[in-house]
């Protein structure tokens, strides 16, 4: 049995990597991947705590969260696809027309 | 409806006197253009309807003796009513206004026939006539004031009817501004009356005339700034009267108002609207009587105006302006005799109203005949360019002579009975009244006015009608047509014979003297039944006992007649026989002539000094204050907002990473703070 701390440590590392990516990267697809990383870090926490307290509802919640992430990824990639068609680039730094 | 007209009680339909011309106004404005002669029918017919109801009411009250009538209903606020009153005072005005207005509309069908906006003209005159009826019929001060303003609006619109002429537009503005000065003060007076009536605990019909009259005894104890409140109110009312009835010093608008169509001058600035002020004093007469010293001010202002305006009439060369000054002067006579009511009581109202009615006939006639002159010789208005017109336009010339004779009070014309009675009674006022020799001043002013009136009136008539034509248009004048000629003849008949018809005025006076004091209550009548002697005592005025005969010296009675003949003789010698050459006095270097020619510099005072120097200076200061201080503060505020926006909007980079960084940073800081202060999550 792997102790809870290891799960939490792994989730923390994944979340930190995702957050770092969001703050520094400009490629749209990488950005989305970072968002998925952060989301899955949270899911991992849910599952770890769920087994720790012997309650399956956390795992069920994680499944919902994964479905949600899939939908969100679909929308995100669709947007990025449109941006690529428009600009032939997927750097989100270019998308700031409404700034001032 | 009962076919027998004598059984109709017209008094119940009094509001239709006012409403019919209003309906005529709407019809004329909306569809008048597409009917008979492109305008004029609806206005004229609606006023004919009002005239029928007015004379029906007169028949009810005077012949059938059904009694006075008054009815009202609640208006927008409890205690303020809309009401109509039928008594000899309002009847005299109603019958005069409807008759004159109908015939002036009749005349205008011919006079305005070449105008392209005829329906607008007739709509405005119909609205004016309706408002004038409303003013006369009002039984309370607020309603009267509203119609008072409405006739002012119509006057403004009609003076500026030919707005494409700059002088006409300016004259309309001047008329409106001059009247507005008086009207503001009048409104203040009404507000004060309302206040002191409410103070008495009165909650219904607060500013109805009859209710005020019944409470005069309590009201006379009210003081403001150590003066009787009623006196202050009466002075404020008098300011309104001076504006509307062209009293000194607010008369300056009337001569300029002659820029409007001549029918307007006849209807509004001679016969009806300008008499509204006289009517107001007559209607509010018991209030003036109960206010100490108020009537004395009225008498002096009126008499001074009478003399003042007639001196100006001597030098003006514009035919219409000569008659305008004579209107101011005759209104002064009416106001002066109302002031003499401090001794004469309600008889003064009767004398004033008789002169008002007579004046309406002969002055409307004079204006309409001068309108005919203008129409006939192509709008030449300078009498120095006329001459010999009577050969080309006999109808106009002779009817104008009838009007002029009535104006100068030639024996047995209407003016003879009305004006000479006023002068006699002004003497009686002086000989009975307390203030001593000063009391003779109104009489002296009025008597001097007579000789000047005769001179300037016949100066105008001789120069225009007799002698040789002095300009090209005057050589071939063309006589007026059917519509105008009929009106001139009808008015000339009344100008000459009104006095004789009314038995030398006595029938009229007896009828009018009933106004406030009739006491016999009958089933079909509503009367105020005031004791004017008692009311006069409140204001320190001792009225003459009714029926007591006072001897007036024969010299005083015949003095006005002699002076009239003297004035006529002067005019005849100078302007008809040419025996006396006045050209050495009538020159710009004669200082007296200079003063008269410049109208005592009153226009100069108002326009160049008060308006342009004083008010403009104040406004310049205000403008600087407004532009640099008030606007400066506002602009500074907006400048700060804009500048701070310019700086702070740079924070919004539009780059997603920055926002994400900010969110993560913010959440991290929040968690650190929570941990620090709560010692755990």
Count of helices of chain A? 3
How many strands, what sense, and barrel or not for the largest sheet of chain B? 2 strands, antiparallel
Which whole number gives the mean pLDDT of chain B?
89
Number of strands of chain A: 0
- The chain-level structural class of chain A is mainly alpha
Largest protein interface?
A-B, 15 and 11 residues
**Percent of residues in β-strands of chain B:** under 5%
Give the low-pLDDT segments of chain A: none
**What summary fits the major beta sheet of chain A?**
none
- How confident overall, as mean pLDDT of chain A? 90
The SS-based structural class of chain B is mainly alpha
Q: How widely separated are the two ends of chain A? A: 55 Å
Task: Give me the Rg of chain B, rounded.
Answer: 31 Å
* Silhouette of chain A: elongated
Question: What is the subunit organization of this protein?
Answer: heterodimer
Rg of chain A, Å, rounded = 17 Å
Annotate the secondary structure layout.
The complex is a heterodimer of chains A (100) and B (681).
Chain A: H1 4-24, H2 28-52, H3 57-87
Chain B: H1 14-31, H2 41-63, E1 69-77, E2 80-86, H3 88-111, H4 118-137, H5 141-159, H6 166-199, H7 209-214, H8 216-219, E3 223-224, E4 227-228, H9 229-244, H10 253-256, H11 262-271, H12 276-283, H13 285-290, H14 294-313, H15 319-339, H16 341-344, H17 346-376, H18 389-392, H19 394-407, H20 414-432, H21 440-465, H22 482-501, H23 506-512, H24 532-538, H25 554-576, H26 591-597, H27 602-648, H28 656-678
Antiparallel strand pairs in B: 1-2, 3-4
Helix pairs in contact in B: 1-2, 1-4, 2-3, 2-4, 3-4, 3-11, 3-17, 3-22, 4-5, 5-6, 6-9, 9-12, 11-17, 14-15, 14-21, 15-17, 15-20, 15-21, 17-19, 17-20, 17-22, 17-23, 19-21, 19-22, 20-21, 20-22, 20-25, 21-25
């Amino acid at each position: 049995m792997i102790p809870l701390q290891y799960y939490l440590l792994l989730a923390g590392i994944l979340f930190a990597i995702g957050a770092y990516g969001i703050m520094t990267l400009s490629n749209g697809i990488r950005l989305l991947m970072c968002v998925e990383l952060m989301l899955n870090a949270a899911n991992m926490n849910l599952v770890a705590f769920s087994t720790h307290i012997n309650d399956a509802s956390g795992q069920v919640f994680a499944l919902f969260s994964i479905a949600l992430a899939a939908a969100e990824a679909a929308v995100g990639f669709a947007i990025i696809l449109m941006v690529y068609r428009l600009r032939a680039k997927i750097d989100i730094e270019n998308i700031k027309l409404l700034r001032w | 409806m009962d076919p027998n007209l004598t059984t109709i009680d017209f008094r119940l339909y009094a509001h239709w006197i006012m409403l019919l011309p209003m309906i005529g106004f709407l019809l004329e404005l909306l569809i008048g253009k597409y009917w008979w002669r492109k305008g004029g029918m609806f206005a004229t017919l609606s006023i004919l309807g009002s005239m029928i109801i007015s004379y029906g009411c007169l028949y009810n009250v005077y012949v059938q003796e059904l009694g006075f009538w008054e009815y009202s209903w609640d208006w927008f606020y409890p205690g303020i009513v809309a009401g109509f009153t039928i008594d000899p005072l309002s009847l005299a005005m109603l019958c005069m206004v409807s008759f004159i207005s109908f015939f002036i509309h009749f005349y205008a069908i011919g006079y305005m026939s070449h105008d392209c906006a005829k329906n607008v003209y007739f709509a405005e005159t119909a609205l004016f006539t309706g408002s004038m009826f409303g003013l006369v019929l009002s039984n309370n001060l607020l309603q009267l004031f509203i119609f008072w303003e409405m006739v002012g609006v119509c006057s403004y619109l009609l003076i500026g009817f030919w707005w494409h002429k700059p002088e006409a537009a300016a004259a309309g503005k001047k008329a409106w501004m001059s009247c507005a000065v008086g009207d503001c003060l009048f409104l203040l007076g009404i507000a004060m009356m309302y206040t002191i009536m409410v103070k008495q605990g009165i909650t219904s019909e607060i500013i109805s005339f009859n209710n005020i009259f019944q409470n005069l005894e309590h009201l006379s104890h009210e003081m403001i700034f150590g003066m009787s409140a009623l006196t202050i109110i009466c002075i404020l009312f008098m300011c309104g009267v001076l504006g509307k009835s062209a009293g000194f010093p607010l008369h300056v608008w009337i001569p300029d108002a002659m820029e409007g169509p001549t029918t307007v001058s006849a209807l509004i600035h001679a016969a009806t609207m300008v008499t509204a002020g006289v009517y107001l004093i007559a209607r509010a007469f018991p209030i003036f009587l109960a206010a100490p010293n108020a009537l004395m001010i009225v008498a002096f202002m009126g008499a001074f105006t009478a003399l003042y305006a007639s001196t100006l009439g001597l030098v003006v060369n514009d035919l219409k302006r000569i008659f305008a000054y004579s209107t101011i002067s005759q209104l002064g006579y009416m106001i002066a005799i109302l002031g003499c009511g401090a001794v004469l009581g309600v008889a003064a109202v009767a004398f004033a109203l008789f002169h008002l009615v007579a004046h309406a006939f002969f002055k409307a006639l004079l204006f309409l005949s001068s309108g005919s002159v203008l129409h006939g010789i192509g709008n030449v208005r300078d009498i120095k360019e006329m001459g010999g017109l009577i050969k080309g336009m006999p109808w106009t010339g002779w009817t104008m002579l009838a009007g002029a004779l009535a104006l100068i009070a030639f024996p047995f014309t209407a003016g003879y009975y009305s004006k000479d009675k006023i002068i006699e009674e002004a003497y009686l006022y002086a000989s009975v009244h307390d203030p001593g020799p000063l009391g003779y001043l109104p009489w002296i002013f009025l008597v001097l006015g007579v000789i000047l009136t005769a001179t300037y009136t016949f100066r105008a008539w001789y120069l225009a009608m007799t002698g040789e034509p002095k300009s090209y248009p005057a050589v071939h004048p063309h006589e007026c047509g059917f519509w105008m000629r009929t009106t001139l003849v009808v008015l000339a008949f009344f100008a000459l014979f009104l006095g004789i018809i009314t038995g030398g005025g006595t029938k009229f006076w007896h009828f009018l003297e009933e106004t406030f004091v009739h006491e016999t209550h009958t089933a079909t009548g509503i009367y105020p039944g005031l004791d004017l002697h008692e009311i006069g005592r409140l204001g320190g005025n001792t009225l003459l006992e009714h029926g007591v005969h006072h001897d007036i010296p024969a010299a005083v009675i015949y003095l006005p007649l002699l002076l009239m003949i003297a004035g006529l003789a002067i005019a005849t010698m100078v302007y008809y026989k040419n025996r006396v050459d006045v050209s050495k006095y009538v020159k710009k270097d004669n200082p007296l002539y200079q003063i008269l020619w410049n109208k005592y510099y009153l226009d100069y005072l108002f326009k160049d000094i008060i308006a342009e120097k004083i008010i403009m200076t104040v406004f310049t200061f205000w403008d600087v204050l407004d532009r640099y201080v008030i606007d400066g503060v506002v602009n500074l505020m907006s400048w700060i907002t804009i500048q701070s926006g310019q700086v702070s909007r740079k924070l919004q980079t539009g780059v997603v990473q920055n926002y994400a960084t900010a969110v993560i940073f913010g959440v991290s800081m929040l968690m650190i703070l929570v941990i620090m202060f709560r010692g755990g999550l």
